[in-house]
Amino acid sequence: KMTQQMRDLQLAQARKPPGPSSPNAAKRLYRNLSGKFRVNYTSFDEGSLVGRGEKEKLRKSYLFQSNAALFEAVELQDLDRVQEMLKHYSPEELDLNTPNSEGLLPLDIAIMTNNAPIARALLQAGAKESPHFVSLESRSLHLSTLVREAEQRVNELMAQVVNEAPNADCSEKEKQLKAWEWRFRLYKRMKAGFEHARVPDAPSSVHLSVASSSSLQVTFWEPLSINSAVVTKYKVEWSCSPTFSPLLGEAVIDKLKDLHFTIQGLVSGTAYHIRVSAYNMKGWGPPQASVPPFAIPSNWREYDGRAPRRRGQAEALDHLLGQVKTVHQHCICHEPCKNQPQSRKHSVSKSLKHLFHPGSKFLKTLKRGLYLTAIFYKDDNILVTHEDQIPVVEIDDTYSCLLMQDFLWLTKVSCMWDEILWLRQCVTVSQSSCSCILQTRFKMLLAISQMQGLLGIQDLGQVFFEPIKDKQGNILIVTLKEVKTNQTFESVRWVPICKLQTSRKSVSSPEEPTALDTLLISVQDKLAYHQRSSHALSAGLYLGYLKLCSAVDQIRVLVPEQLPNILCHVKIRSNPNISREEWEWLQKMAGVEEPVPTEPEADRSQNPLFQELQVAIKELMTLVNIPLQEAKDFRLYSQEVLDFGDQVSFLLLLPPSDDVCTAPGQNNPYTPRSGFLTLPLQIFELGEER
């Protein structure tokens, strides 16, 4: 018998624990384990067990029979319990794809009882159908055997109960009879579910897009029919012929968390037809052709053969810096440093261990001048000196006004923290000119070296986009650095920010706070800015809005507070690639009198990019508080697509040329809503690079 063969196969698997002796025993095991599952996590959280080893031992004892508990939860159609076990245990711990003694997997039971919610939960967790059902006939035969054997067992137990006198054995057999009657009904329901099922309908929709010059992305949705069995996998096929003869390739997708597939290794410029079909326990359903019916792998750069903007730029800059270093290597300014030993690369733990000793030269208070402070933070804690002070060093005590050019120069220096000593030596040569600018920048380098030496750390982090100024003539430049190690350090304390704020005794009035007081008051905002400025966008094509405003000494750019390293933007779609055909259409758009499409036209309604841009422009105009009718005067930047790696790309939306940059004193009739700020253009460029 096929059932007996599957049972023998299970006995051969040494790692599989024996199942319950009867369906009734399995029910009791399920109930017991369900209660233990509910108690287990609470006890772990509350620390009621003494040792970690005991916790793990107890956990393993539960896992030993967790597979049987999962089967019972599926059979009893207990969706909550199935989801709980899938949430707290891995598929390996649950033996999710190991058949039971009847040759069935949890997913088999779910789909044959047509329990779609449980089947989808199992599929999301990686469940598969039993590999023993190689054909419809084998599945039907196996179910018939299970029903027949269960019915035979029910008849045997019923005869024994009727013929035997009432006693303890009879009572136990009555319990077994009820359990087998329940299992008999389950198997009949599974058999009826299989017999009444039909192959699935075609996927409700199949969308085809160009992912690159050698790949296409296929996105599909499950069939709309609710009467067929649960779909357990999909098949994607592709061909150069609309008849799919010959077939160039196919891929079966059984991981159904995300219903999309990228076809790689295609030939650029060749048209490919795509179709997708669904599968359930009755077999493959009819295929659904994609929309559009074919696509050609390509990229917008193929339109005019343009090379990537940044190709080789980083290498060229490194080479140029090496040449500059070589020229300066034999300068007289480097002679005193030749005999100095090379600076050691301190580990974070060693450098922070001896961070702030009593002889350090960190300042406690500020007097009129220019200063540098470094903020190191971890979670909600901040690193302070042994005197509970944020580390501050002096740059220049005679400098009462910071020129924006000097500050922006320092932000660029922050990209070369490891080269400060070399930069100092190079600037020393030029001091003979007595340039005030060079003198100030040399003092900045000295202060940076002092901070690095006292901390024992080269990387001081990112410079905050604007210095802190007070009415006493103090100017404080702030650097921010997140420490992600979980180590503890001697002679150094991580102090909660809130405690530091409440314990510090201010020497200034609330009306005129000093720069240090202002820093402590606003430190959470600065840390939030630092964290947000390192966030990355998810993969996709975005529409960005470029808006500048100029001042006497700088140009600033409008950015969202939540992502200050990116222009104001909305997402157009998840596919970042612009195909050659789409770019040709955009070039034609750039030449028409109506720059930005706001109303659909018959010849454009079939263009997916046109429809996506319409939605994105409306959303973006609402975001930056500009009436939609004003968008008719805006234009899409048609010179290039801004690529940020392989996964993120931007199309730029530009105001009319006279309004791209607001001049000093010029009124902007449309002020963005809250949630935006303006950054110096150079700061924005550095943040974009990071």
From TrEMBL:
Boundaries of each Fibronectin type-III domain copy?
A: 202-299
List, alphabetically, the GO terms of the cellular component aspect.
spindle
Q: Entry's CDD domains?
A: FN3
Question: Signal peptide: which range, if any?
Answer: none
Reading the lineage from the top rank, the first entry is: Eukaryota
Q: Where are the transmembrane segments?
A: none
Extract the ranges annotated as region (Disordered): 1-25
The name of this protein is ANKF1 protein
Tell me any Pfam family this protein matches.
Answer: fn3
Q: GO:BP terms for this protein?
A: establishment of mitotic spindle orientation; regulation of establishment of bipolar cell polarity
